[in-house]
Design goal:
The protein is α/β, with parallel strands linked by helices and about 230 residues long. The protein has eight helices and seven strands, in the order βαβαβαβαβαβααβα.
């Protein structure tokens, strides 16, 4: 039975991906910052979904995730921080805000990969780093988030070159109707954005077809499926 770990898997896109993997025979470990969201994401109990409460920024939590997950076929670094809401211009962000965003979106995923790398290599596994178009486009207000995701994209390319026995992908799901996207546009109606579950098949296709390591978008994967 294939084994996966999804950070930030108690809500939004991570939760829907965890459920889809569980329904297709995967054992999936997720984490989330509150017991309530983790419990909701892993109910009803099926034996395929397991939850751990904590934040990926915490070293002890990362160690516990690695212990609970074991050797992996798939790691999805989905946990992300947008930064302050409403969005602010880059020059006005406090150093503490920058540290929080970069720690969550770049430093902590790399630290987790380091802990899990031996098991991933043993299974010729896959690492998926959830990215954004803000990593490649300059949007006012999205500077910290976009720069952290750009850094993670590049780090993924380096890891793929250093460890060619695993696949490392940056995956851009596009805009979705999630809590984080709503926080980027407080008070605005984002009901025109697609639901997270509608994007899951694109990432499932990426995992199943295992193309060369690199950056892929949901739109690209779905167009190649038709």
């Amino acid at each position: 039975m294939p084994n996966a770990l999804i950070t930030g898997g108690s809500r939004g896109f991570g939760r829907e991906l965890a459920r889809a993997l569980g329904e297709t025979g995967w054992t999936v470990t997720i984490d989330g910052r509150t017991a309530a969201t983790v419990r909701e994401a892993t109910e009803p109990p099926t034996g395929s979904l397991h939850g751990v409460v904590g934040t990926v920024r915490d070293h002890d939590h990362r160690v516990e995730l690695a212990r609970r997950a074991g050797d992996l076929d798939l790691l999805v670094n989905n946990a992300s921080s947008l930064g302050p809401s409403p969005l602010r211009d880059l020059a006005s962000l406090a150093p503490s805000d920058l540290h929080e965003v970069f720690d969550t979106n770049l430093v902590s995923p790399l630290a987790l990969i380091g802990l899990l790398l031996p098991g991933l290599r043993a299974r010729a596994g896959i690492v998926v780093n959830i990215s954004s178009d803000a990593a490649v486009e300059a949007y006012p207000g999205w500077g910290a988030y976009g720069a952290s995701k750009a850094g993670l994209d590049h780090a993924g390319l380096v890891l793929a070159a250093e460890f060619p026995d695993i696949a490392v992908y940056s995956f851009d799901p596009g805009d979705m109707r999630t809590d984080m996207h709503q926080a980027a546009f407080p008070g605005e109606d984002i009901s025109d954005r697609p639901l997270p579950e509608s994007v899951v098949p694109a990432l499932m296709r990426l995992i199943e077809t295992r193309p060369p390591s690199g950056r892929y978008t949901a739109a690209q994967m779905m167009s190649e499926a038709t």
